[in-house]
Amino acid sequence: MAISLALIIILGLAADFLFRKMKLPGLVGMLFVGILAGPYVLGLMHPAMMEVSGDFRKIALIVILLRAGFELHRDTLNRVGRAALTMSAVPAMFEIVGVMLVAPRLLHMSYLDAAILGTILGAVSPAVVVPLMIDFMDRGRGVKKGIPTLILGASSVDDVFVLVIFTILLGMHGGEKINLWLKLSEIPISIAAGILAGVIPGYLLYWLFKRYDWRPPKRTMIVMGVAIFLTWLEKAVEGWVPVASLLGVMAIGFIILEKSEPIAHIISQKLKKLWVFAELLLFVLVGAQVNIHVAWKAGLAGTLVILAGLIFRSVGTYLSLIGTPFTFKEKLFCIVAYIPKATVQAAIGAVPLAAGLASGEVILAVAVLSILLTAPIGALGIMVMGEKILDRGEKSVYKFKALREKQMLPRVGERVRSKVHDTIWKVIEEKEDWLELPKKSAKTGQAGQLIPAIYIRYWKEDAGLAPGKGKTLTFRYSEKDPPFSAHWESVYDW
Question: What is the pLDDT of residues 203-221, one digit of tens each?
Fold first, then answer.
């Protein structure tokens, strides 16, 4: 299995580099590496790796959903709340109806089997969508109207909604007596229980981090451990109460961000470094699940069914956005952002076949084909359209984020080493401000350009002195000042 891990790292990074050079999303390259190296093409993956790939993919998804939670601000969520609610259900329902209308004729299956296929196809892929939305948020694209936040929140609930409908329909096929209203009630219960399951540990973790001065790596590992436990809890209690654990994972980050933004950003930065490896695992292993031989059986008929479903889904997405302040182009971006399919289709595509459905093999083939068609095309569409359509405010707070990442600045609570004096200092205060550059020309009368600047106060850790008491230094960082690395380096200790 170790050699399989080496292949994932080496080939995945190489594909990421090549695709970025071609101005294509790196994750598409990773998906193709997984398909080629997987058991259905070249068979380079060790069987043991495929056995544990589900756990690896779940951990990688937890990393990116935690990062998503640490980016969700309350005011932005309030702005997009109604639209997120409608987008979490309406587009999927439209896609299910669209598949039901065309699949019986094109694929020669019953309406119930077509509805089951529709629920499988109706789930958007958080594995593809969430990383791209976080990248836009990191760079300040679309944040004025909260478009990436809208898609983050809606896509997470979309999966909960679709999976409940899938369970209901599969039970009806098996002849089980199902209380329809009771099953439908699982949707709000699952969402509420998932959020509550994240809010409670979120508050507890915040209290622990404020009470005990743990180093950033320890905080990050504790958060990861709690998030993984939540996903186990969902399985443990599913017989009694449905819990949308992935929403709980996002809620942990949201609560910590609400209570202490500096702590949240420290943890988020560590997760961002961890995501480099988690991204490789997630997309290469998702690709390895794709059986292109099965997808080939779906053929042209399967492609037409997927296309019809996407057309109906697009109509549903557009209707969900009526009444929002988005322009037509921004609505078009949201439609494209709701195209990619991968994670859920790979997870449940084979369930109908295992349950004995007559159309089970066809359903699996179409599910696999939907990954091959929509994951790369959707990812590429999101990146290209996002760069052209999403706004970037001239005086956006995200410019401070870009400055911080470019300079690799520490956060409050982190320790740094002075390169000049070889001493250890602790960051105890930071302030963001706009710095006005001198006017370009007195003749033109133009105002000076405003650029972001971050002021950081360092305290020398002396025994017996409280933070701020004793020697402190304040440095300013902007594009016109010496970089952080000129005088300091971060200390990544425990």
Answer: 999 898 888 767 767 888 8
